[in-house]
From TrEMBL:
This is DoxX family protein. The chain crosses the membrane at residues 67-88, 100-122. Keywords: Membrane, Transmembrane, Transmembrane helix. It is found in: Membrane. It comes from the Bacteria. Its main location: membrane. It comes from Nocardia thailandica. It is a multi-pass membrane protein.
Length: 125
C-alpha cells in the first residue's frame, strides 16, 4: 500500500507541478487561448499567478516532507488542500460547460482523497 500511495502522490505532484508552472510563468493570453484555460480570460493576472504558486507549493508539499523527514503530516494536509482547490476548479469548469474537465478535476480530487486517507489512516509516515 505504501508503494501505491507513493505512486499516487508522485502522479498528483506532477499534475500540480505542471499546472503551477503554466499558471505562474505563461503569459495570460496564451493561457486563455489554451483548451481548459478559457477561465483565465475573466481572471486577473494576480489570481492566476496566485493559483500557480499554490499549485507549485502543493507539488512540494506532497513529496518534500517525507523525503526530507520534516513534518510528513504535511502530505495529507496538502492533499486535503488540493481537494478544496479541485472543488473550485470543478465549479469553474462546470460554469463554462466544460464537462470533460470537470471529470478530470474529479479524478484529481479522488486521487487527493486517496492520498489523504492513506497517509492519515492506512499507512502514515
Amino acid at each position: 500500500m505504501n508503494t501505491v500511495l507513493w505512486i499516487a502522490t508522485a502522479l498528483l505532484a506532477t499534475v500540480a507541478l505542471a499546472g503551477g508552472l503554466t499558471k505562474t510563468f505563461l503569459p495570460l493570453p496564451r493561457l486563455a487561448a489554451a483548451h481548459g484555460g478559457e477561465w483565465t480570460a475573466d481572471a486577473g493576472v494576480t489570481q492566476v499567478r496566485a493559483l500557480g504558486v499554490l499549485e507549485l507549493l502543493a507539488a512540494a508539499g506532497l513529496v518534500a516532507p517525507p523525503l526530507l523527514g520534516i513534518a510528513p503530516i504535511l502530505v495529507p494536509v496538502t492533499a486535503i488542500c488540493w481537494i478544496v482547490l479541485m472543488i473550485g476548479a470543478m465549479r469553474t469548469h462546470a460554469r463554462l460547460d466544460q464537462d470533460a474537465l470537470v471529470l478530470v478535476n474529479a479524478c484529481y480530487l479522488a486521487l487527493a482523497l486517496f492520498i489523504a486517507v492513506g497517509r492519515l489512516a492506512l499507512v502514515p509516515f
